[in-house]
Amino acid sequence: MKRNVLLLLASLSLAVFANGETAPAGVYKFSKQIAVPGGGWDYLSVDAQARRLYLSHSSKVVVINLDHAMIEGEISDTPGVHGFAIAPELGRGFSSNGREAKASIVELKTMKTLSKVDTGENPDAILYEPSRREVYAFNGKGKSATVFEAESGKVVATIPLSGKPEFAACDPVAGLVYCNIEDKNEVTVIDAKKHEVAKTWPLAPGGAPTGMALDLAHHRLFVGCHNKQMIVLDSDSGKIVATVPIGAGVDATWFDPEPQLVFNSNGDGTVTIIREETPDKYTVVQTLPTAAGARTMALDPKTHAIYLPAVQPEPAEAKDAGTPGKRPKDINVLVYTLEKGDGK
């Protein structure tokens, strides 16, 4: 079964671009998969310097060595974990534990939990803001953001939000934190110094925003929306400068500044890859087949590889026996790498 899945993914990744899409100077292709026992996952995070991938995995965070494509260890006691933020200069990581309304502060080297911080209800996305060395836990049910000091764990602010927060990004130079408000179809802009909402930007024609990424050099904010559109905003003014079609069920959006590519991972089993031709012009260059339900994603900025978790298909004999659900489905982290073209 595993071999069949590998062959299918590899062959799909060689598919010719459809609908007149423009081919980039290279294409993303399936490379390998990393097996992770047990089911359930959410966000992934990459520490490019330490060569680690952190995968939120039910009640723990699985730590994967990127260079050797193998599990290195785990961070335990993170009930209902959604995300994991990294502060490399502090040697610390931070998990949002949705089921206990807390965030864990973790020593990265040892993978040991140092302390926990009380947050609002169901912390989901979590973000490290490096200029002030603060962590933002975005509380889904609490409709707020809990801000605490990365080193001490001291809560410095609770910021009310207009609705359910989803993913977030920050501009340390501008001192701004951006967050999608999924049920209001808008972006909230937070003043990181004042710890208060500074602006609110509507996303229409985008609807149900989830993924978010930021091009710091060109001041462009990319927002993946569930109505199959990626909205591009000027991160200074909030003006919408472009809309780009993407797949269905997007959950994660990433930007790679070196090749100027934006990635949207979609639950329909595709990644929509978009090139930033200019700050105001965007072209879909590849629709990469992945696996059904592979909706979250992380990017390794060093190698440009992307990582997507997907449930390993259940063996046919288990379905025939009528026993699905008794055994947790395993996860495969699918790895796709950029293969350079010949420049023609």
Structure description:
- This protein has 2 domains: 25-39 and 209-231 and 248-315 and 328-344, Methylamine Dehydrogenase, Chain H; 41-202, Methylamine Dehydrogenase, Chain H.
- It has 2 helices and 28 strands.
- It has helices at residues 2-13, 316-320; strands spanning 26-36, 44-47, 52-57, 60-65, 70-75, 81-87, 92-97, 102-107, 112-118, 123-129, 134-139, 144-149, 155-160, 165-171, 176-181, 186-191, 196-202, 209-215, 220-225, 229-234, 240-245, 250-256, 261-266, 270-278, 281-289, 298-299, 306-311, 331-340.
- Strands 1-28-27-26 form a 4-stranded antiparallel sheet.
- It is globular, with a radius of gyration of 19 Å.
- The two termini are 38 Å apart.
Question: What is the strand and helix layout of this fold?
Answer:
Layout: H1 2-13, E1 26-36, E2 44-47, E3 52-57, E4 60-65, E5 70-75, E6 81-87, E7 92-97, E8 102-107, E9 112-118, E10 123-129, E11 134-139, E12 144-149, E13 155-160, E14 165-171, E15 176-181, E16 186-191, E17 196-202, E18 209-215, E19 220-225, E20 229-234, E21 240-245, E22 250-256, E23 261-266, E24 270-278, E25 281-289, E26 298-299, E27 306-311, H2 316-320, E28 331-340
Contiguous helical run count: 2
The shape is globular
How many structural domains does the protein architecture include?
A: 2
Q: Return the CATH topology of the largest domain.
A: Methylamine Dehydrogenase, Chain H
Our estimate of the beta-strand percent is over 45%
CATH superfamily of the largest domain: YVTN repeat-like/Quinoprotein amine dehydrogenase
The CATH architecture of the largest domain comes to: 7 Propeller
Average pLDDT, rounded to a whole number, is 89
Portion of residues in helices? Answer: under 10%
SSE ordering: HEEEEEEEEEEEEEEEEEEEEEEEEEEEHE
